[in-house]
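ok trying this again, last paste got cut off
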Amino acid sequence: MSAELDVDQEDNAVAARAVALRISSPDGVASGVELGTGPITVGRAAPDHAPDVALGPDPQRWVGRLHCTLDFADGMWSVTDNASVNGTLLRHGGTAEHLRGRKRLQHGDQLLILGDMTAGGEPLYWELTFLDPHTTRPAPFGSPPAVRHTGPCLRYDWVEARAYRRDGGAETPIAGLRPQGHQLLRYMAGRSTQGEAVACDHAELITALWGAREEWASHRAYTRGDIAGVVRAARRCIEVEPSDPKILETVTGIGYRLNVAPPNLGGQP
């Protein structure tokens, strides 16, 4: 489906009208992949899984095993995020958006996939640049309609990888989130398409944070207690009163619910 492409040979590939991805890792290592006819899977390699484009090493599992897929149909390439935990950003021109559903790709578009985070909470991305200079077509970038939302809620900025507490029209940046807190909020916020509250059960969140059971170390098992610890730490950052949560609520006996801010409200990303 794909073939390794030396970065130094990229210009030759483009001249031959090859469609390719130019890949830059979070630490700046460059590589490239020539695309065939698709579909092309992008993700994290595992003992029983080898995506066409493997992003790694990734010991913290920021990248999903089947993170996103590029496919070719009707003369155009498109990309779909496969419900990945940390999501995919699509940068087109000077703007970036959280990828939802299937989007057509245009020459120069970049896919941004979170690969690491600094100790200070700064996101470090894999950058996958789509190269197809001989077939450029406009890509639709529609915005979902605004949804009325009352009460405290959380807005997650997918471009900056930052969370904000919104209450009564005021918005406050959230500081001090640990990496697993970010993963929890990114996963839950990513399940909301129109600003609706998102409820996830314990098993779903355990898989989101620590992967499938077969990926766990032989001496380790994750339980509701592990999720509760991540939730408590996140609440200390996002809630005004962590003992009386309004944003990340407990659904007794089931899991947790996150109250999410409507998208693009007030001109926010």
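PB: full thing came through this time. The helical segments are 10-15, 179-190, 202-210, 224-238.
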